[in-house]
Specification:
Elements: H1 2-40, E1 42-43, E2 53-54, H2 58-66, H3 68-101, H4 106-118, H5 121-131, H6 138-145, H7 160-185, H8 189-197, H9 202-213, H10 215-231, H11 234-239, H12 260-270, H13 274-299
Antiparallel strand pairs: 1-2
Helix pairs in contact: 1-13, 3-7, 3-10, 4-7, 5-7, 8-9, 10-13, 12-13
């Protein structure tokens, strides 16, 4: 009896601590996610959800067969995710490596690189919208100064999404740089010293010693960047809300920068088509889950140090 009471007391504190966390996840994560998936299988009636008709996978079939906006948004989202990941991961690693070598002013430069990550996305989006302005924007003034022609930037269907990606990457770069810098500072010095004793130069040491040792950091940042890119919304909504000055709706010009998160917003918040919005959100969840598992399979290090 006493042993049983002792065991109960032993697990009482962990249960008391974990129960509120589990309740929070159930109420604010798992239940909304399940309800969203359930809604996507219905012809949803916003005024009276009880009258919603179960239609199975019809909403998903309609998206892939009859909705050109979904196909364009899916393509743009994949371009956004691939381009942003291809920019911020290697550049962040390069900047972190340069910061590691600094002997003076290291903290100042770390703060300077990380500062954009602390700024509001709304403020940065508005600032870069003016910088990209075709007639008086600073970027075009610089291009004229170095002898190049002015560019339409946000007014161009071919350039708009890449202008937004550059802006997002510029703000996000500080986070990847800081995490890579922390990873470099925590690498065991014995491996680097052993490589130098064996005659390896700085470049060979970086690629054959440091990068493999940063395997867990690279995996984390790759997965996190991919998830973050799928969820992005602010810059697209702010910078393309007028099509870069062309008078179009968000995602412009036309649908050139239209993305899945914007499609969810338009369908769910503006048109009140909850079934279609939740269908798109579910597709995003499945894609993110598959890509995350794939990245864990391909990038996960097979060893620890």
């Amino acid at each position: 009896m006493a042993r049983s009471l002792l065991i109960k007391r032993k697990y009482l504190f962990p249960i008391a601590v974990l129960a509120p966390i589990a309740l929070w996840y159930i109420l604010f994560m798992y239940y909304p996610m399940g309800y969203s998936i359930w809604s996507s299988l219905h012809l949803w009636v916003v005024e009276n959800p009880a009258k919603s008709t179960f239609v199975g996978l019809k909403n998903y079939v309609d998206m892939f067969t009859t909705d050109p906006r979904f196909k364009k948004a899916l393509l743009n989202t994949m371009i956004y995710v691939a381009t942003k990941s291809a920019v911020v991961i290697p550049v962040g690693l390069m900047l972190a490596s340069l910061l590691e070598r600094l002997k003076r002013g290291q903290r100042f430069y770390i703060f300077a690189v990380f500062l954009p990550a602390l700024c509001s996305a709304t403020a940065i989006g508005i600032l870069f919208t003016y910088l990209y302005q075709p007639r008086f924007g600073l970027f075009n003034e610089f291009l004229k100064w170095v002898g190049f022609q002015s560019q339409p930037f946000l007014s161009s269907p071919k350039q708009a999404i890449f202008c937004v990606i550059f802006t997002d990457s510029w703000q996000y770069m500080g986070l990847t740089t800081l995490i890579f810098f922390a990873g470099l500072m925590n690498l065991p010095a014995v491996f680097v010293e052993a490589a130098r004793v064996d005659g390896a130069g700085p470049i060979r040491t970086f690629f054959q010693i440091k990068i493999p040792l940063l395997g867990h950091t690279i995996l984390f940042l790759t997965v996190y960047t991919m998830i973050n890119a799928f969820q992005f919304f602010d810059f697209i909504f702010i910078m393309t809300s007028t099509g870069g000055g062309t008078g179009g709706a968000a995602g412009g010009p036309g649908y050139s920068s239209y993305v899945l998160s914007l499609l969810v917003y338009n369908q769910g918040m503006l048109r009140m088509q909850i079934d279609k919005a939740t269908s798109v959100a579910t597709i995003m969840l499945i894609i993110v889950l598959v890509l995350t598992l794939l990245q864990f399979k391909l990038l996960r290090p097979k060893w620890e140090y």
